[in-house]
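Summary of Year 1 activities. Much of the first year was spent building the evaluation harness for sequence design. The harness presents a backbone, in tokenized form, and records the residue chosen at every position. We chose the following record to illustrate the format because it has been used consistently in internal testing since the harness was completed.
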């Protein structure tokens, strides 16, 4: 309720005045909202004006700010041995109490949806939306909720709330104020050019988001392909994935498969479902409806080498780049995890009784009787 109220106030602040109305003085914003906007927590897309609240809380600890919700999250999180803060298979739990641990969450994400699969686009029946859809040949104009990127650590993302359908009113953006062109592009993106793709997805529960994930081994070819696309558009990003400047739409995915032979996994996320994102795997998200998600980062033993390689990949980025700073500290995590493992092994062998399979030690022969 607090998040919805905050987003409603922000919408009132940003919404343009009606035509012909005098522009009133902007309302006074609270210090918390100004800090949230400065930290990048509120994004306003130029194409569809999709409001998004990400990485909440931006600085405070989720457990201290919302203790009841954090207790519910800790009790319900899947595979707690990996994903929990204190899980034995979460290598970040090996950091000592006196160190500066990385901020692995949980973090909350609230974003409006681009479309609604149950809402007809041309709800007025005047054919205007069909003309927009026919003219929206640039499928890549779909803004997406989270653009293509990859994280240094593993993560689990749980969809905790999906807003109900608006029932055929408005543009289908769930209150985001998206333009008809952007809605048409997003709808064409989800349909995939093969009919209603969402309607063919089996399962129970409301569909909230559509995910695309690529294998970590395909990242070099995916980066090279997006660099060529950026060059064709006259853009020069520092890195096409780390800059989060692409949403790989249907047209780009088809071209990627044809030119590079790279295909990813595309699936839907329903309310109550958890998505595990391995470290170093490029991924992107398109919200179908307004959603609230909670994400928790963790460091698994299986992907620690990948975390270390990503640390080296981030070093060539410009100094002012947001990914150039080492916020995870995988080397310190690896050192403390190895120390904890060696200490546990030493204590185990020190107090372990002899194994039954070991051969019995030779006993000295009894002394000979005197003659």
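For this record, the design step produced the sequence shown next.
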């Amino acid at each position: 309720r607090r998040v919805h109220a905050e987003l409603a106030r922000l919408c009132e602040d940003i919404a343009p005045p009606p035509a012909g109305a005098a522009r009133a003085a902007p309302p006074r914003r609270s210090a918390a909202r100004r800090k949230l906007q400065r930290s990048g927590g509120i994004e306003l897309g130029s194409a569809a004006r999709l409001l998004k609240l990400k990485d909440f809380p931006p600085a405070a600890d989720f457990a201290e700010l919302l203790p009841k919700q954090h207790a519910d999250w800790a009790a319900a999180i899947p595979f707690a041995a990996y994903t929990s803060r204190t899980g034995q298979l979460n290598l970040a739990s090996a950091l000592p109490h006196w160190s500066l641990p990385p901020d692995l969450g949980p973090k909350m994400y609230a974003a409006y949806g681009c479309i609604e699969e149950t809402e007809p686009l041309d709800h007025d029946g005047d054919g205007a939306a069909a003309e927009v859809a026919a003219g929206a040949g640039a499928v890549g104009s779909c803004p997406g909720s989270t653009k293509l990127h990859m994280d240094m650590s593993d993560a689990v993302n749980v969809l905790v709330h999906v807003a109900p359908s608006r029932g055929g009113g408005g543009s289908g953006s769930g209150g985001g104020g998206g333009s008809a062109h952007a809605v048409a592009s997003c709808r064409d993106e989800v349909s995939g050019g093969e009919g209603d793709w969402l309607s063919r997805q089996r399962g129970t529960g409301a569909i909230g988001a559509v995910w695309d994930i690529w294998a970590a081994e395909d990242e070099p070819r995916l980066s090279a392909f997006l660099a060529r696309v950026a060059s064709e558009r006259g853009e020069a990003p520092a890195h096409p994935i780390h800059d989060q400047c692409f949403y790989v739409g249907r047209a780009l995915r088809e071209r990627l498969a044809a030119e590079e032979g790279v295909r990813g996994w595309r699936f839907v996320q329903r309310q109550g479902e958890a998505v595990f994102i391995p470290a170093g795997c490029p991924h992107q998200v398109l919200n179908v409806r307004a959603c609230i998600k909670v994400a928790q980062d963790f460091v698994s033993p299986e992907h620690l080498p990948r975390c270390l390689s990503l640390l080296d990949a981030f070093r060539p980025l410009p100094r002012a780049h947001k990914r150039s700073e080492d916020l995870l500290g995988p080397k310190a995590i690896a050192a403390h995890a190895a120390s904890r493992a060696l200490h546990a092994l030493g204590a185990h062998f020190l107090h372990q009784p002899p194994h039954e399979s070991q051969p019995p030690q030779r006993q000295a022969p009894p002394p000979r009787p005197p003659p």
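Residues 35-48, 116-140, 168-181 have pLDDT under 50 and may be disordered. Quantitative recovery figures across the full test set are reported in Table 2.
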